[in-house]
Amino acid sequence: MTTATLRDWLLDDSPASRAQARLGSAYRATLGLLRNPLAVVGALIIIALVLIALFAPVIAGDPLAQDLPNRLKPPSAAHWMGTDELGRDIYARIVYGTRITLEIVLLVAILAAPLGLVLGAVAGYFGGWIDRLLMGLTDIFLSMPKLILALALTAALGPGIEHAIIAIAIASWPGYARIARAETLTIRRTEYIAAVQLQGASSVRVIWSHVLPLLTSSLIIRVTLDMAGIILTAAGLGFIGLGAQPPAPEWGAMISRGRSFILDQWWVATMPGFAIVIVSLGFCFLGDGLRDVLDPKAGGRR
Amino acid sequence: MSALKLDDLDVSYGETRVTHGVTLDIAEGESFALVGESGSGKSTVLKAIAGLAPEWTGSIAALGRPRSHGIDPAFARQCQMVFQDPYGSLHPRKTVDATLSEPLRIHGIGGETERVERVMAAVGLDRRFRFRFPHQLSGGQRQRVAIARALMLEPKILLLDEPTSALDVSVQAEILNLLKRLRREQNLTFLLVAHNLPVVSFLCDRLAVMRRGRVVEVATTSQLKHDDLVDPYSRELATLSRPTAPSVTEPSS
Amino acid sequence: MSEALLEVENLRVSFPTPRGPVEVVKGIGFSLGRERLGIVGESGSGKSMTGRAILRLIRSPGRQTADRLNFDGIDLERQSETAMRAIRGARISMIMQDPKFSLNPVMTIGEQIAEAVQAHRRMPRRALRQRVKEMLEAVRIDDAERVARLFPHEVSGGMGQRIMIAMMLIPEPDLLIADEPTSALDVSVQAQVLDLIDDLIRHRGMGLLLISHDLDLVARYCDRILVMKDGRVVESCVADELRNATHPYTRGLLAAVPRLDEDRDELPVLDRSIA
């Protein structure tokens, strides 16, 4: 059977190539993850999120189609999650809202994490005035609450989802820089770093090729766990009217609209609320599972 | 020509001066030990030579050429180091192959595959370990990788920081045999830091005893074996390494 | 020989692994009176696990079983966790390799010893201070009052171990299990700490189970020796007779250790296929 031999190849104790060794490691990590039921639940939720976002046009109708005679109707066969104040199908809006959520979460991660990682590693590795300068900068950003900072930035930049993403990314990178710096401080004292310095490696090489790879695990865990917070921050911005603008089906904005009807037409606000909760939980479970598998301190690498 | 010459070496960590006026002359092809207890400064001397303790005064010269204070790529090709802890001296995310090819890449030396395989064979590591990660290797195997790594740049001088003290007795014997053989085959010069005098007896020609940052005695291993050391502290250290009931642990043949 | 303080029969310890359960201690047995017994082995031999199993410290997912695990007439296998807690420290004590990990880093030494004394018997403050001083002096720490005010990171390894010994002796246990008590220490300090343990054991008529990888050490400080390999006892002999050991593994270990007056060109290497 080819699956059996593939598995054997991946789990081989004596890999014959770099690629085989790396794939084998990844496979073992995945197996470890699959043993954790909550992590599996989290992973499934995220996969579902991605699939729903991809196939939105196939599984839902038009999120923008207004139907005023049918406004504020409760969940029914025609509208699985009811309609909002303009008669739009809430289910369709939630489905298309996954695209906005994914866009926010991915772009923030792509912008903030590498920036924080590199700045933190450089600060930690060199120490001295470089460290003080970079950490001073980090501290300035860290001293402001994330939401307030994001608020101020979006207010300055103007409303709109791109500005919201930039604002949240700017509010997030200092946290990653701090983690990267703290770990780098430990790593730079190890003997394997001493060995490669002794071989004559330049600082750039040491940081890029030896320090950064060790930071990626913690960073992946941290970013995954942060996704929940990012989603909530984006929702908060949407709630206030910054961030995604109408008629975009952003979940936070939907909750905001539904506030006025919450007592009689509860579904308008709570459906998007459930969506946010489920996705945040998914990221948290997955992040926790990843920590158990990837974090060497928690015995992950064995 | 002397392989390593230290002259009045004072190493400091910030405010504290750790070694005082260390002067040693190690000949080419010699196996020399720095012996002492913790706090004696022996590891510090090694680190200063390796360039890992940049605050020092005095002079350090390898094969006639003095070295600079920081990272010195030219020095790297003359002198390499084997660290003590097999569990901490290999990068956890790099395969054996990656660890061994790194020095070649840094210095732009080609022919990676054959060089890696050659050195692996020289240290007794089977080819099938080439793409394993450190956590898939035993302590002895890791230490062989550490030795292989030190040999990749074909240095003339090896600094060894207690290379076997973290290993089991049986594994220690293998590694000591390996080091002895490599030295003979490649005419290497060893500077070994040890607190275990019997290891010194097996592997070295001469030794210097250090105490609180100073060299208190330089002697030959022959003097050590025949209880001919002069300084009272050195004699005390030697006595502690001798089993009290003389042949309690010597196997009767 | 003194009557048995500890009796072990068919002790097994196993751990689950992705490839099925692995036994790290494979049915060993021995008895220990008020004497000094050394267990020697390399890493993976199961010697430390044996020490822990006696104190029922093997935590899930590890499992331990034994046909007999008797301490002074008490069946340790049947005791509840609460009962074991009363025995640990009070009747059987354990000291381990690195005092750094056994001492509380945020309490002064005096405070920690006092806490250990108070757990055993409550006493007024002045009497407590006096007792702490006595305990420190019993382990040959001269400047007891000054040392009592220090934090663990401010004292050397050797002193840390002596403090651990002091704390361990407070409830006056019958059996001491010492797991590599001097491996992290310098040669000169090793001798001091072991002499101290030896002295205290003799004076109080305690039993000692010394676990170590160092053959010389065990031969020097024990009456009897057990050599363990791969979870089994391969040799059992009187310490003085170690050089007449018969099992090839023991003889191999003895031969592989370099001597101070070494004159061999090559050290004999252990044949790992020896069962």
Largest sheet descriptor of chain B: 6 strands, mixed
- The CATH homologous superfamily of chain A is named MetI-like
Name the shape of chain A in a single word.
Answer: flat
Number of helices of chain A: 12
Within the CATH hierarchy, at the fold level, what is the topology of chain A?
Answer: MetI-like fold
* Most residues in contact, chain pair and counts: B-C, 38 and 39 residues
User: What is the H-and-E element order of chain A?
Assistant: HHHHHHHHHHHH
CATH topology of chain B: Rossmann fold
Helix content of chain B: 25-40%
Number of strands of chain A: 0
Tell me the radius of gyration of chain B.
18 Å
Spatial separation of the terminal alpha carbons of chain B: 44 Å
Q: Which band does the percent of strand residues of chain B land in?
A: 15-25%
Outline of this structure?
Helix content of chain B is about 35%, strand content about 25%. Chain B is α/β, with parallel strands linked by helices and about 250 residues long. With about 280 residues, chain C is α/β, with parallel strands linked by helices.
Write the layout of secondary structure elements.
The complex is a heterotrimer of chains A (302), B (253) and C (275).
Chain A: H1 2-11, H2 18-34, H3 37-54, H4 56-59, H5 90-126, H6 128-142, H7 146-157, H8 161-187, H9 191-198, H10 203-240, H11 251-258, H12 267-294
Chain B: E1 2-13, E2 16-17, E3 22-27, E4 31-35, H1 42-50, E5 56-62, E6 65-66, H2 73-76, E7 79-82, H3 96-106, H4 112-122, H5 139-151, E8 157-161, H6 169-186, E9 189-194, H7 197-203, E10 206-211, E11 214-220, H8 221-225, H9 232-240
Parallel strand pairs in B: 4-9, 4-10, 7-8, 8-9
Antiparallel strand pairs in B: 1-2, 1-3, 1-5, 5-6, 10-11
Helix pairs in contact in B: 5-6
Chain C: E1 6-17, E2 20-32, E3 36-41, H1 47-54, E4 63-65, E5 68-71, E6 74-75, H2 81-87, E7 92-95, H3 99-102, H4 109-120, H5 125-138, H6 144-148, H7 157-169, E8 175-179, H8 187-204, E9 207-212, H9 215-221, E10 224-229, E11 232-238, H10 248-256
Parallel strand pairs in C: 3-9, 3-10, 7-8, 8-9
Antiparallel strand pairs in C: 1-2, 1-4, 1-5, 5-6, 10-11
Helix pairs in contact in C: 4-5, 7-8
